[in-house]
Specification:
This protein is of the alpha/beta class and 282 residues long. The chain is built from 11 helices and 12 strands. It has a 7-stranded mixed beta sheet with strand order 1-12-11-5-10-9-8, sandwiched between helices. It binds adenosine-5'-triphosphate and magnesium ion. The site of adenosine-5'-triphosphate has 12 residues, from strand 4 and helix 2.
């Protein structure tokens, strides 16, 4: 059996904001059904209790940004949502995460199916050591697509969706490594999109890029939310201000406050949120 590539392993009038142990429902008042519903989630690694009683509802077709200081559990939350956390044998996960009505920690759930559904774009691009074309076609080939014409259509459509087609259409068979870092990140986005995820998760996926490439990826996220749910961890408050519809502020493994971006940024309810936003700590 072919080993799963990293994209599968690591792939992929507003409600009032809430704090404490209430369920942070980001979607109810906008009339959307929450696509991701997290109930009583606790995550420990060894003796370290990392995520504490997380209750959260995240909508589809919006950009939700997760913010908070280093080490507060942002990446752990994303990895728990696509079960990448399972790769650590010392992890204990309690509680429920329902995605589109399916409890992803249910007994019969296949982990590769969840990782495909929740494509994760990591901090640094991770192109496979093959051509641009083969990178995008890889996941579909694994899932049994063989016809050349069909693969060519999939590759073009997803390179278009990731905003890379015009730059690479004349060199599809060049190595992916010949692309710039920003282009490689868009290639990884195209590779994730090709297996039809439900959600796109990004863990500081623009932080290793130059400002122009970073804005390019941001623009892609804004376009892609029409078709997907987008959940992004970001250290850059300005980025969250530019693109977030909803924001979740985590501190020491707890959700301190969550709600519509405008409300949370302009009228934060919790003292810790105010301090974080004003740069008292980072
Ligand atoms: N594999 C691990 N083993 C033990 N502890 C871990 C492991 N991974 C993460 N942690 C701990 O869990 C806590 C949360 O880490 P996490 O990576 O989720 O934070 P983060 O908010 O993403 O931080 P950053 O902004 O620096 O990326 C930290 O205290 C970290 O040391
Ligand atoms: Mg992190």
């Amino acid at each position: 059996m072919i080993a799963a590539p990293s994209i599968f392993r690591s792939f992929f009038s507003s409600p009032a904001s809430v704090s404490g142990n209430e369920t942070a429902s980001l979607s109810t008042a906008s009339g959307l059904n929450p696509e991701i519903s997290i109930k009583g989630l606790n995550v420990s690694i060894g003796k370290n209790h990392i995520l504490k009683n997380i209750n959260l509802e995240i909508p589809n077709n919006k950009i939700t940004c997760i913010i908070g200081p280093s080490g507060c559990g942002k990446s752990t939350l994303l990895k728990t949502i696509n079960r990448l956390i399972d790769d650590n044998e010392h992890v204990k996960v309690e509680g429920e995460i329902n995605i589109g009505g399916e409890n992803i920690y249910g007994k019969k759930v296949e982990v590769t199916h969840i990782r495909k559904k929740m494509g994760l774009l990591s901090q640094r691009p991770t192109p496979l050591p093959m051509s641009i074309f083969d990178n995008v076609a890889y996941g579909c080939r694994i899932h049994g697509v063989r016809k050349k014409k069909e693969l060519a259509q999939i590759v073009e459509a997803n390179l278009q969706a990731a905003g890379l087609w015009e730059e690479v259409k004349d060199r599809l068979h060049s190595p992916a490594a010949s692309l710039s870092i920003g282009q490689q990140q868009r290639l990884c986005l195209a590779r994730g999109l090709a297996v039809k995820p439900h959600f796109i998760l990004g863990d500081e996926s623009t932080s290793a890029l130059d400002p122009i490439s970073s804005r390019h990826i941001e623009d892609m996220f804004v376009k892609l939310k029409e078709q997907y749910g987008v959940v992004l961890v970001t250290h850059t408050l300005r980025q969250a201000l530019r693109i977030a519809d909803y924001v979740i502020f985590i501190y020491l493994g707890e959700i301190i406050e969550a709600g519509p971006a405008k409300e949370l940024f302009h009228n934060p309810k919790h003292e810790l949120t105010k301090e974080y936003l004003s740069g008292v700590f980072s």
